[in-house]
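Hi there,

I know you've been waiting on this one. I reran it after we fixed the sequence typo, so this is the corrected version. Both the input and the resulting structure follow.
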Amino acid sequence: MLSGVHVLLTYTCTFECDHCFLFCGPWTRGTFTLAQIRELLDQVQKIESVDHVFFEGGEPLLNYALLLEAIREARERGLEVGLVTNAYPSNSALDAELWIEPLVAAGLNFLSISDDSFHYPDRENSPARITLDAAAGLSIYVDSIAVSNPGAAAGTKGESGRGGPTEGSRAMFRGRAADKLTSGLERKDWQELDKCPYEDLVSPSRVHVDAFGHVHICQGLLMGNIWETPLPRLVEQYDSNSHPICSALNEGGPALLARRLKIRPEPGYADECHFCFLLRRLLLDRYPGYLGPRQVYGPGY
């Protein structure tokens, strides 16, 4: 049952991290307007099972005024509110307090900060660590998101109570990670990759929504578009068995998807996500309503 909506406030980011699900970066476009935020929140409010929203990116602090108002209006609609950020403006504790305190006053409940070597090689003196220290005394839940390099010891796969990866999470081979982080890794026979182990595609507990209106069940795998069909109706009508991508993934993972659509796979892949993402990239022209936006599949797609 859907309980959370994660708003991709912008695809633009201060970084171009190798592990980014969405190929975000300084030149990536797609940012909500205030009118769009209000329309989305009105739609979210009509889904009784949804009790929280998270604002993410890209880097949402790049659009601070919009973020501040979005948090305020989400709280006015009775939703709990979280933020995922790399905390880039925090050059000192005072700087961190300068941007955190107004967000808390507006109603922010949860703050998740990217704190890993993909973002900050010098992790001891990074904006993330400064922000974690500055936020420690606030009356909100604060945690860090630290994604491990693929060659490091695997951390937990799980997600925090509000949908973000926990400390020590393994890199997921979607988006830029499928291109940047799989070289040299041990490969699995594609025929063994017969399930989707990381997402509930039958009854998702959270979706991501971007400014283009796309509702992501998994990054780049779409339920529909809220500017064409309101989110409550999309959620009510969603049936994974009738979805041309999800139906195959549910029944037999990316291996079945390749067989069903008569795609000749490579001999091996790093894992199910890697295989699935590369398959979906090949299917962009065939299923434009179910896969997109093209920019999350990389430059040139």
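Quick highlight: Confidence is low (pLDDT under 50) at residues 153-167.

Best,
R. S.
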